[in-house]
Write a structure and sequence with these properties.
The complex is a heterodimer of chains A (361) and B (512). By secondary structure, chain A is mainly α. Chain A has one domain: Amino acid/polyamine transporter I (Up-down Bundle). Chain A has 16 helices and two strands. Chain A starts with a strand and ends with a helix. Chain B has a five-stranded antiparallel β-sheet, sandwiched between helices. Chain B is elongated and about 105 Å long. Chain B is an alpha+beta fold and 512 residues long. In chain B, strand 6 and strand 7 form a beta hairpin. Classes of the chains: A mainly alpha (361), B alpha+beta (512). At the A-B interface, helix 1, helix 5, helix 6 and helix 12 of A face helix 15 of B.
Chain lengths: 361, 512
Amino acid sequence: MKEHVPDRQGIAFVALFILGNSIIYGLAWRAGRDLWLSFLVATGLSFPLILLYSRLHSLMHGQVFSEGMESLFGKWPSRIIALLYSGYAWRLGSYVVSDVTNFIQAVSLRDTPQFATALGFVLLVLWAVKEGAETLARWSSVMIVVVGFVLVFTLLLATGQVDLDEFLPVMYDGFGPVLLGALQIMDFPFLETILVVGSIGALSRQKASYTVFLTGFVLAAFFLMLVASFSLAVLGTEKYTTSYYPIFMATARIDVAEFLTRLELVVGVIFALGGFLKMAVCLLAACKGLAHTLGFSDYRFLATPLVLSVIPGARWLVKSSMEIERSATKVFGISDVLFQVVLPICLWIVAEIRISRHSED
Amino acid sequence: MSFWKRWKEKKAAGKQREHLSTSLESNIRWLRSNLLADDATIVYRLLRTKGPRPRDCALVYANNMAKHDFLSEHVVAPLMSSAPPKELHGQGLLDYFMQEAISSDSMDTSSSYKELAEAVVRGTGVVLVDGCGIGLMVDAQGFEKRSVSEPQSETVVRGPRQGFTEDLGVNVSLVRRKITSPNLKMKYLYVGEQTRTKTAVMYLESVAKPDLVDEVIQRIEQIEMDGILESGYIEELIKDSPRSPFPTIGHTERPDTVAGKILEGRVAVLVDGTPFALTMPYLLVEAFQANEDYYRHWVLASFHRLVRYISFFLTTSTPGLYLALVSHHPQLLPMNLAISIAAARKNVPFPAMVEVVIMGLVFEILREGGVRLPRSVGQAISIVGAIVLGDAAVGASLVSAPMIIVVGLTGVAGFVVSQFNDVAVVVRLGLVVLAGLLGFYGFLLGGMGLMLHLASIKSFGVPYLSSLTSLSVQGSQDTLLRSPWWKMQMRPRHIGAKNRQRVQSPSRSRRS
């Protein structure tokens, strides 16, 4: 089935994916008060890799995912790659599910079992996966407006609480922590964008991949930097680095004449929206990958078992929110380096060689 | 001899099944005994012309469907006083009657029994002439019609007071008078095996996409149904996403609305027998647009449009949000409000969820009762609703007072977006159930699911959310707000794709 995503909707899709579940965490906490520098470094370092992802996506332009993979890498190699990535996508999807359910249990529904919230989200994700990337992109283009508006509004309201002195002195501990923070952000969430390559369908034209991926990435990076810096400036370095959900705590402090209070709820909304999209994209990629491995052209019949298996998966991978906090903000795990950096570079080199050979023939 | 006669008749009857014979007597006998048998309303008026060789004729028409005085004055009288020349017969004779006797502006001929019989029951006068194998159909339709008046379902403060009637001809002319351009094209289709309902497909040739027009015509032609009594039949049979409660085909009673939609590149379908015209494709934003938006100052129109969006949010979400706050997150409410709600709910025996569902149901019952009852009894309903169910229920501590406010707000807000009034009930119920189960996050899940559903449906190939998702200034001019006319130089993206320029020389229309 051919899907078609307009450019602007694609940008919204990528941006919302990156914002996704990451917005509530204390990103780059290792950098402490220099986290804005970490963001700049991470953006700079990730940019070539995102460019590489968009190159990979654009090479598959005009083809269904499985056809594109097969023409680039051959039948069996492409199936193995797809299997590996679909495992990675499934694992990430499970993490996001546990992120969301842990968050909801921690901040509001204390007595509701996590299974219930997980089931609610996962059923919705199942529906979204069956609808496909085109619908999801349209969905995110509406939601990105909501998210953007709400974020800007909240940040403006909080300017009274911001203490810019929190950022000083710059680089007191040297460049080491900045780099560590940058690596944290690259691992999660910047380079997880690789999964969008496998989930989003055809864009309007071949060059559109660059516009969509790079613009979406820069937009999301900018917003994340804004949100993280704001949380740090409101909470102070100490609280930022030790709390589970810094932005949640920071917005809870907003109080405009007792009229606009409890804005942390808004953060919950954004987190749920982004988390949902991220789950859906991960599982879409997982379904498409697995379908390709098994040699089916349509992935939809795989959706139900694969998506539902995320609930036990989340339970299996993550035991408590303390654990997820640690794993979400770690510095580049081995598997992440493999799937986000090593494999994409190898794939890109192989693809370029094969394409230049093909054009010589 | 009798055997011979019977054999001849039988042979003739076999031949005659489709086409007229030259014998007037046998034609009438055939109509009486077969196609128009057992129909007391059919009148057979036999008459004879003057002249050197008088001819026998018959006028067949359906009583009360055709205009009597017109037929007597312009068909019967001239025929009886005409004197056809001796040598004329067959087609020549018919031409003589058409050209020199019958004074009607609209006539047609046919030799098929079926066509003639269908014409008779539609209200046409059919003239049969002895010695002629062809029948003459004189357009004389005339029956009681409602006059053009302001539609009750869509009233305006400022705007034309015209509404469609039940007559297709009148309706088509009402639209035509708005767009007097040869570019306005029309195609008639007959739908329904028994009713043969006349249906007009209207579009602007220079703007509407040809494949859209073809698609509409093709879908209507594929309808297999015995009867089409209202445009709702066609709507349900040809709409996209038929399982979705959201309408993907619009309906209106106003010619100005139809003309506006046609000018944007949409296709309109008018159906005989109903004042409701269909327009397609139909997008989500259209439910929030009113024709009056375009007749008033754009600032006020934009404000009222925002009010409509907010009302839709309130009517679908108020009970769900109230339920989530009261039963799952009372800590989110300001202290004073939380206390007063708790105080009001203290003596109520039911959980909030039960309260919400029961009061919602009561409101729907009152509304349905108010719509179906005769006007004079309708007042009783509102008294019962307001005093007995509202005041007394609170007094008896069966329902809390805040709940009455919630239901009241929900109900009133629902009428603001009338096109989605029915949809809102379904959405509301879903959100109430989800909010009852998972609190605010259940409500959020419902909202996301709703948006996902809206993102997945299309209307005639155009995404339902189109122009809300465009994320560009030009594309979203007529969505949440209405831009001033001098800014809206482009037609909507997907619909007016063939000719997007609304105003050909924008510089002239722009005011400095």
